[in-house]
UniProtKB/TrEMBL annotation:
Family per similarity comment: Belongs to the bacterial ring-hydroxylating dioxygenase ferredoxin component family.
Alphabetically ordered keywords of this record: 2Fe-2S, Iron, Iron-sulfur, Metal-binding
One Gene Ontology MF term: oxidoreductase activity, acting on paired donors, with incorporation or reduction of molecular oxygen
Pfam families the record matches: Rieske
Protein name: Non-heme iron oxygenase ferredoxin subunit
Swiss-Prot/TrEMBL cofactor(s): [2Fe-2S] cluster
SUPFAM superfamilies associated with the record: ISP domain (SSF50022)
Nucleotide-binding is among the record's keywords: no
Domain of life, per lineage: Bacteria
Residue ranges the record marks as coiled coil: none
Length: 102
């Protein structure tokens, strides 16, 4: 396990998302009603940044073709997306948000 601090809790309101640039790839961080979630920030269909799309509940829509993913599971939920996105474990430690990025 490699835990990385990616944000402070106060950086994201509930219902918001943001891109987290890392050396190897960008992650998307989401603040939902029940906590924080992290996924790959790249749509598996169109290689677009999901954090530039829209978030409705726990479903993120790609800004290019509107394909959708469940940010809790990574599963594709709407065509043209069929390949899931990677998800990462998230912990809140005090006011800090950490992601297990292996």
């Amino acid at each position: 396990m490699t835990w990385i601090k990616v944000a402070n809790v106060s950086d994201l309101e509930v219902g918001d998302m943001m891109q987290v640039p890392l050396d190897e790839e960008d992650l998307a961080l989401y603040h939902l009603e029940d906590g924080f979630y992290a996924t790959s920030d790249v749509c598996t269909h169109a290689a677009q940044s999901l954090s530039n799309g829209t978030l409705d509940g726990h479903i993120v829509a790609c800004p290019r073709h509107g394909g959708k993913f469940d940010v809790k599971t990574g599963q594709a939920t709407s065509f043209p997306c069929v390949i899931p996105i990677a998800t990462y474990e998230v912990e809140v430690r005090g006011d800090e948000v950490w992601v297990d990025y292996d």
